[in-house]
Amino acid sequence: MSSVFGKPRAGSGPQSTPLEVNLAILGRRGAGKSALTVKFLTKRFISEYDPNLEDTYSSEETVDHQPVHLRVMDTADLDTPRNCERYLNWAHAFLVVYSVDSRQSFDSSGSYLELLALHAKETQRSVPALLLGNKLDMAQYRQVTKAEGVALAGRFGCLFFEVSACLDFEHVQHVFHEAVREARRELEKSPLTRPLFISEERALPHQAPLTARHGLASCTFNTLSTVSLKEMPTVAQAKLVTVKSSRAQSKRKAPTLTLLKGFKIF
Ligand SMILES: Nc1nc2c(ncn2[C@@H]2O[C@H](COP(=O)(O)OP(=O)(O)OP(=O)(O)O)[C@@H](O)[C@H]2O)c(=O)[nH]1
Q1: Interface ipTM above 0.90
Q2: How many other β-carbons are positioned within 10 Å of the β-carbon of residue 117?
Q3: Range of the domain at 131
Q4: Residue 71: inside a domain
């Protein structure tokens, strides 16, 4: 089994194998998931993206002096969560993003948090989530107060941040690194750390009313005990390309982006 999709290790120290962390970014269309992802990976704010493109990026990070091989899935659901298994059983942590100038996106973030809570209950596998109120630079057009964000995060026991993809990089990086810390805490606790890919689709008997209530009708997931589990595909099966970001973009060490499953040129 390729080490890229191998069992994450919780070892520490500069010589240890990098900890492997999968992070999925969820949220309504337009909340700023791609902008935050690209800001974190390249330190740049880019205003236009293909909204239908879903990519997984890979980045070597150092968090608290520990090397981390971080994979970020920038999801592209439409208005509500769809085909969620691709990230529910893959991620070690979630960033749930809404835009402070959009009440609709805030409501959707509540649906995503409900979905994650439901999945955690059904699989008895707790995966940390962080709630992000994005577009803080648009605070004059706020439709969602900070107190509402704090309250929603409190309801689900997750960390909360207000950020902006077009303001300082350090704040965005801090949020992503907090997600890594949360994932690491959970990985150190849990003996079952390997991300699993579930091959069989079978809705739970009591699931329909719950998901329907939260507008998640198209989202099904399974308990670990009743389905066949497969390891995630190896990197050899995924389309892989490495892109070096432009030297002109920054005088600092330019990050190397590894793009899986799709190409995006910055
Ligand atoms: N002012 C401001 N605009 C932002 C910010 N983040 C994203 N945007 C803009 O909001 C729009 C949507 O951003 P995206 O990153 O494409 O949003 P998304 O959540 O990935 O949306 P989908 O790709 O459709 O799922 C784009 O025009 C971005 O430039 C931000 O922090 N501030």
Answers
A1: yes
A2: 17
A3: 17-187
A4: yes
